[in-house]
Amino acid sequence: MAIARDKFWFFGVRPHQDDIYLGANEKIGRNYPWSRITATEGAHMLDVPNMILVNCEGVPAPYSAEAYGYAESFCRMDKVLWSATGSAGFRTGIEEKFICDLAEKYPNIVGAFLDDPFHQLKDDPDSMEKAAAIMNEVRAGLAKACRPMDIYMTWYTHQMDSADIQTLNLVDGITLWTSDYKKLTELEQHFQRLEREFPNQKKMLGIYMYSFLEFIPVPDEYMQMQCEFGLRMLKEGRLDGMIFEANSVMGIGLPSEKWLRKWIDEVKNTEIPD
Fold first, then answer.
1. End-to-end CA distance of the chain
2. pTM score above 0.90
3. How buried is 105 (Cβ within 10 angstroms: 0-12 exposed, 13-18 middle, 19+ buried)?
4. Taking residues 46-63, what's their average pLDDT?
């Protein structure tokens, strides 16, 4: 048996990435302090042992001193996925080569993460074919790694009806996210559909602490709804992990972060299938 904590992952980005959603502006109408928390600090604040590092607008760039600094800071993490496409689908084309090189030096590098791989293709009628080409390119690049590498991707519940089974079958794992927290009441049916349509993929559940649609912390009742559902799926052996997003909204006093820290402390030693 394993424990729930073994399956907890952290969604890490550069500090200050989401300040625009927190600070004072006309849309938000409020002024949370800006977050200075790094990816590593965020994971340790929640006591989460696994990391997904997602570059934002190309930061940290492959082979940069900053990227190696991030990798060094993850020295205590059990497993690390490194983004091959970053926020909004940003890609330089050399990410998988860098991941292979990282894997030589860091044993905890276990694969690549594709964040929003369809974003830049959303108005393109050939988006699925082009996304498949990117996935095949990443797969081919990772085949040169010193050990087998997994590929995970972001998939939103509001994209369910546009799912292309052949394209999504090109990845090893799908991470399911609900961007509108009020739609979490439909999470179970979305997850069941994911199970039906993609039985061969590993599955992880993305957990937001902050609503980027409404510029507010996710209310406690919805934090409980999504976290308890994820834990139940872990206990039933139907889920491979839970991902908590993100350091860029932490350390500013959000009630959702405080709720999540307490919840993780309470459930992290729960026994689950290995």
1. 5
2. yes
3. exposed
4. 96
